[in-house]
Amino acid sequence: MKVDLAHVSDIEKRMTVVIPPETVDDRISTAYRELRKTVHLKGFRPGKAPLPLLERYFKAQVEEDVISRIVQDTYPKALEEVHAAPISQPKIENGVLERGKEFSYTAVFEIKPDITVQGYHDIEIGPQQEITVTDDDVARELELLRERFATLKDVTDRGIRKGDFAVLDINGTVDGASFKHGTQKDFFIEVDDTAYIPGFADQIVGLEAGATTSFRLTVPQDFSLSEIAGKTVDVTVKVKTVKEKVLPQLDDEFAKDVGDYQSLDGLKEKLRQELLDRKKYQAESAIREKIYDTLLEKNPFPLPRALLEEQLKNMLYETDRMLASQGLTLDDLGQSTGQLVERYREPAERQARIALLLEAIARQEGISAGAEDFEKEYQKIADQTRLDVATVKARISTDMLTPRILQEKALNFIMAKAKRTET
Questions:
Q1: Domain of 238?
Q2: How far apart are CA 358 and CA 228, in angstroms?
Q3: Are residues 290 and 403 in the same domain?
Q4: I need a labelling partner for 294 at 20 to 30 A (CA). Which of 95, 279, 335, 387 fits?
């Protein structure tokens, strides 16, 4: 077997594999011997059909099978011989298979670009910021908690106000025709500007339980439900019940209802620490993005299509998983997969480029992933998924974790070398 690797571009290679005539002959003969054992031809017992007759009826089938087996058997060995590491499925172009002659095929595939990263030492990341949590910050968090633990009370002596909740029967049509989610029965909503369609809440404010009203709304062009975007919707609403939100008192009992706290002061301290951790994470995230911006600016390179598509696939999967956890689908949001792909394309390309740059820095600095790194990563995943470490290890190999570990260690290396500025 002869193998030649040709340069197509910085991210694409063409590999030509040549199979010697004796191997071709052996493969063809073997294929016909196997076929003879199983084929049934009129006038011949199994295993006794003559070769010329088999070639007359089955030549195309045998050739296709032999070529497939040759490529399947030799492609991995050929890659090893020329030290190639494809990141995409190959585009195979086969030659002609004939007895007594060489057979060749070509495989075109993408590879990761060979990047030598510049400018990652002493990246300027701005001045050191003092991270603090104020009493006002804690007070805002407490209000959010009160909202979360609020109860609802039936209202019978007044009409709907913004911020109330209501149970409604709704019938919405466009030019007399119904549309997706247009008709809702016993529809429970919070009466705010996001309810149903834009402008809906303003039309029902003041209505009391038992009231019925009809009105017309013009939907904005950029509305998420494309079926009615930019159109006029006729709406009829019957108010069945109105409920107001009752916020709990801020006291020790409230703290106990929220969690394992003995007093309101204990809850406040916990919130203060969580806010501090969150602000630290946000500050670190800002530094990371600054580093990424610098790396991307100083190190342009072609991005393999396969890596972009893989990142897009991962982002779509995470979106589907998140929506499924809420009992939703893309259709419920009036979105298609194609629309989501276009929205995700730019951030997906950014993430794919960053990953390649961090992996290259890890190589340049001799950063590796050791046993301790893997154990920490397995434990982190176990904590996030609430699985035991043994189960995580059974599902995720160290090879799958290595890129993530190397990228994180490379980023930590850059951050340790980063330079603070005075302003």
A1: 151-246
A2: 45
A3: yes
A4: 279
